[in-house]
């Protein structure tokens, strides 16, 4: 799963929340689009008399041109090469949301850890570099607080600071497609990209969208999946971040995909997965990653500060939820 917007610090490696099932009772007026973008799969269901597949692709390509570190001509790659540059509205949106989550998580969410992602072998090429032995020196030029936005011009205190918005950009892509659908008068939709969801209105069954949240069990040879919960939601974003799917082994050691911006090393916490329900998918995406990186006690604080609902699956197989998340639970 791990290309496109994928990074170490990414809820792209989600324990996937996958979309509400539709059945033979679905209304004929619902369109369905699916395909590949950023080396992951998208599924989009929306109520419309006409297909909007071309518009969906155009939106997703525009997001990639601004935010994908795997597109060397993208705006974020240009930002990574200089200390000052005029940026677009997409970059500004994601940057401001990143600052919000960075503040709420006491720095445990930080999109400037791109050099650390590369050093640990989860970035483009997926090969561990010599920088792995120099984490302390890399930390000197990471930190979103060492950057600023003035109008439409972006500044970095150190030219070497690099951004990788993988932990939030896929959710933003969902939001941008949802925004386009609403501009076209479409209120009922579910946009899913790589497991992240932007949801609005009613499902083809004329009720809220039902989302199954995966509860995986990793063995030495495979992953076993089971549904840990089903929630009924609308007009929100849902994202799940998990550490069990994106990892690699070096000798006998296994490295997870979540890197601490504070220590520079892969984080081992008691949180196996974090699911967040937020006003939009971009914020849910980033918050879920912050919860994964922080551990359960800090994650509870993060969710409280942001006012989002969430569910944490812990390493002892227990499940913790916010009170509001409990109200979203459904029996089927």
Outline the structure in words.
The structure is a single chain. Helix 1 runs antiparallel to helix 6, helix 3 packs parallel to helix 7 and helix 7 runs antiparallel to helix 8. 28% of the residues lie in helices and 28% in strands. It is globular and about 55 Å long. The protein is of the alpha+beta class and 332 residues long. The protein has one domain: T-fold (Roll). A hairpin with a 2-residue loop joins strand 5 and strand 6. The strands form 4 sheets. Strands 2-3-7-8-11-14-15-16 form an 8-stranded antiparallel β-sheet. The chain has a 3-stranded antiparallel β-sheet with strand order 1-9-10, with no helix packed on it.
Task: Please render the helix and strand layout as text.
Blueprint: E1 17-18, E2 30-37, E3 40-47, H1 53-67, H2 75-79, E4 84-86, H3 89-104, H4 114-119, H5 135-139, E5 147-150, E6 153-156, H6 166-183, E7 189-193, E8 196-200, E9 209-218, E10 223-233, E11 236-242, E12 247-250, E13 253-256, E14 271-278, H7 281-294, H8 296-306, E15 309-314, E16 319-321, H9 323-326
Antiparallel strand pairs: 1-9, 2-3, 3-7, 4-6, 5-6, 7-8, 8-11, 9-10, 11-14, 12-13, 14-15, 15-16
Helix pairs in contact: 1-6, 3-7, 6-7, 7-8
